[in-house]
User: Which sequence fits this backbone?
């Protein structure tokens, strides 16, 4: 299983862009990179996923360099409601035998 | 449009009691998982299943049993509750390709 490393916590202010980088040096060829968001007292929810280059949706952007050994989740113009824990996961079910392992995640705190 | 349904939402047990946490999904996913989340921590995988009749241990399986008799249901059994099992438990149902997990709202369990 590809191990991921991301910052434990980050602080930001409303209206700023936030970039959270995840390192995954031993990513496999067919691994996806997936980010989840978890609010207090709720289960995580999927926010974005990519395989290579850049992916953008209504919530975030995901930047993946050519070597795929890291990825950056970008949240544009954050608000207080973006305060949450963000998890970076690498892999796919087939090459992980069905396991989906979450790390510690990055606790993002957005201040007014 | 139920998704993943967990019951109960809250439970208090006495040490030594047993109970079953229920999880049901209506998305016809083969993959289902159980996680526990202690305060300030990430999610830890307890058990998972890759289809009816097939289960396997995750990172922290001791003290828990699972079975998967149908695609829809994946109950988690606490055999003899201990205070160390006080936690929030999340069930997830997962699409395989591309990989995406859908989580229930969680069960907050307190063992006294």
Assistant:
């Amino acid at each position: 299983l590809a191990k991921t490393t991301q910052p434990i916590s980050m602080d930001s202010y409303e209206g700023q862009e936030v970039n959270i980088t995840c390192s995954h040096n031993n990513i496999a060829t067919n691994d996806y990179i997936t980010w989840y968001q978890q609010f207090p007292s709720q289960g995580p929810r999927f926010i974005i996923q990519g395989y290579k280059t850049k992916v953008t949706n209504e919530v975030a952007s995901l930047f993946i360099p050519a070597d795929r050994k890291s990825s950056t989740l970008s949240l544009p113009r954050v608000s207080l409601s973006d305060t949450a824990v963000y998890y970076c996961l690498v892999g796919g079910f087939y090459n992980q035998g069905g396991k989906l392992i979450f790390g510690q995640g990055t606790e993002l705190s957005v201040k007014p | 449009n139920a998704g993943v349904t967990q019951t109960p939402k809250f439970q208090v047990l006495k040490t030594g009691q047993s109970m079953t946490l229920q999880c049901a999904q209506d998305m016809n996913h083969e993959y289902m998982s159980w996680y526990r989340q202690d305060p300030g921590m990430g999610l830890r995988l307890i058990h998972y299943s890759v289809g009816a009749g097939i289960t396997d241990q995750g990172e922290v399986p001791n003290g828990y049993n699972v079975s998967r008799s149908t695609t829809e249901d994946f109950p988690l059994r606490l055999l003899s509750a201990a205070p160390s099992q006080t936690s929030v438990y999340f069930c997830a149902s997962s699409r395989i390709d591309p990989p995406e997990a859908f989580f229930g709202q969680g069960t907050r369990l307190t063992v006294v």
Notes: Chain B touches chain A at residues 4, 31, 33, 35, 41-45, 48-50, 56, 58-59, 88, 90, 92, 94, 96-106 (CB under 8 Å). The two ends of chain B are 36 Å apart (CA to CA).
